[in-house]
Amino acid sequence: MSGVSDFLRSYLTVGWFGIAAVALAGLLLWVSSLVRPSRPGHEKLLTYESGVDPVGEGWSQSQVRYYIFALLFVVFDVEVVFIFPWATQLERYGTFGLVEMGVFVFVLLLGLVYAWRKGVLRWV
Amino acid sequence: MMSMFAVEVPYWGQSLLRVLGGIVAVLLPAGTIVYVFLFKMMSFMQSRLGPMEAGPYGSLQLVAEVGKWLQKEDIIPERADARIFKMAPIVVLVSTFLLVAVVPFGPDAWFTNFEVGIFYALAVSSLSVLGILMAGWASANKYSLLGGLRAAGQLIAYELPMVLAVIGVVIQAGTMNLQQIVVAQNSGSIFGFDGLGNPYIFTQFVGFVVFMIAIQAELTQAPFDMPIAESELVSGYMTEYSGFRFLIFFIGEFATAGVFSLLTSVLFLGGWGVPFAWFGWTDVDSVANWMNVVGPVIMITKMMLIAFIIMWVRFSSPRFREDQLQRFAWKVLIPVSLGNIALTSIFKVVM
Prior knowledge:
The structure holds 2 protein chains of 2 kinds. Chain A is 67% helix and 0% strand. By secondary structure, chain A is mostly helical. Chain B has one domain.
């Protein structure tokens, strides 16, 4: 009871939940392994492509548009990390906090407008 | 959680009870949603009866399904990256369990009571993307890879409107702790009338709508089901999964729908509480003990209501196109939710 703070104990509970999920999945898969058949064959283990034998590799490189969306996402996600603590204390900051955050969001919004005008928000 | 029994339970006992409660809180909503909505409601909406054979009105269908899936062969394709292929469904399930850990069910009936509760919830909810990407990549299948990448692109695009919609609630409540958000709603008043409390669905209606759209996309339910589109990608990242591993994905999907419904009810519908004015309560310490029993029931009721809306939209709308999806997120939802934040903060400071 002593020594570990409630704060750390909450995170320990999260750890237990993670372990419980793995244990539950493991248990169910183990039970399943007792009753399910296992008759592997070359045809059965073939990659499924609607009945046609697979052509080429299943792994390939993905297009650049994913990278641009990921970049935009990071920009706005970091913004959100800053907004959250500000949001809880807004009553104390008052007008000063409002103007301050207004400037911050405005600068980021310019980034979105720039991306919009550049046409990178189109998924083509 | 334990004070309702008026006995001191040692820490390991508390943890065990919490974990058992967590398993119930994951599996019960998943099972209920699948039976009531996926089996029955969808059938009635399509003028058929749905499962009728197993038990009265097919109520034991789920037991039969699990029994069936347990006996299915566990197929791992030759070309697949076997280790990651096996891990992927478990990662999705873990993300669901971590998410439910933060939902409060009553004044003392909580699993964890983080000061930054909603922040934590938003952080772990995006863990499931990892599992989906792992599944898509490890299958070594073109459909799966496309589905996995679509899922990743969709989830990061809709993560933002969801988070921005929550900020409106955080500004109004002045806290990120989910328990205090519930208390703030139920002890609040609308223009001095406190018979309803102040559920944020009224003041944050725009945020609520954006949040509902965003979770629809996060859960990859139609009209946002491009990652698993049956008719073009053959279930996308789940194409190669069979047997119990597929079932774990399935449980994860509907359990996450349940947990997101619970979170929505906490953020916008007042969570486990009843308006405190009814019984003259002032804060969380003065709430009567019986709320620990009634609270979960209220939560389940609200969860069913939200899940009903999610499933209703799912059953009755056609699929978006991939470019429409991205355009909608970046050009409509994000500006709208930013405007919502601006309005909310101005109201908060001026009034």
